[in-house]
Amino acid sequence: MNTDTQTDTTNGINSKAQNQINEALKHNPAMAQITFQASNEWKGGTSSRSRISRFSMAGGSHPHKQAFEVDTDLPMPFLGSDRAPTPAEYALHALAACMNSTMVYNCSARGITVRSSAAEIEGDLDARGFVRLDDSIRAGYQTIRIHFKVDADAPREVIEDLLKGSPMFDVFSRSVPIQLELETSL
């Protein structure tokens, strides 16, 4: 998309409002702290459903415009009904989508026009890890490959840096502590 000077948008994002938000976050780091939330319930077999309806930011809880429900399942080779993507496929989606939107968002803040951006992503995992057959095999992805094709008014190095600035790229490329709390009936 091109920059529209009449409405101050770049790539479909209101650049003026975006820069005001960025300045506010810069001068008030407490405003920048965000907590995303989801609840998940097992629905039987290998399927579950997550509900996402709000997030916290700037000291307050904010409802989404609508609540989202996301189903997951496993394919038939793992005795699933294959009625929804696997959690592992959603993880790939989250990574590619986050890298894409973060790059476009930050291009907009810099006045860089992005005409198109698309990604192809694959991840390899060894099922023996997640079915607990061999504790030496990682349960999750061993390798992820992502190929972006971006048409933008910026050099390759700038685009690559902005892609790597994605929150999900950070989650996948560095270890993130997970605090597990568990209640059981026994």
- Strand % is 25-35%
Low-confidence stretches: 1-5
Cα end-to-end separation: 57 Å
What structural class do the secondary elements suggest? alpha+beta
> Which superfamily, in CATH terms, is the homologous superfamily of the domain at 85-174?
K homology (KH) domain
Shape verdict:
globular
The biggest beta sheet, please? 4 strands, antiparallel
Looking at this protein, list some descriptive labels:
alpha+beta, GMP Synthetase, Chain A, domain 3, 4-stranded antiparallel beta sheet, two-stranded antiparallel sheet, 30% helix, globular, disordered N terminus
In short, what is this structure?
The protein is of the alpha+beta class and 186 residues long. It has helices at residues 15-27, 87-109, 127-130, 156-164, 167-173, and strands at residues 9-10, 13-14, 34-36, 39-44, 47-57, 60-72, 114-124, 143-152.
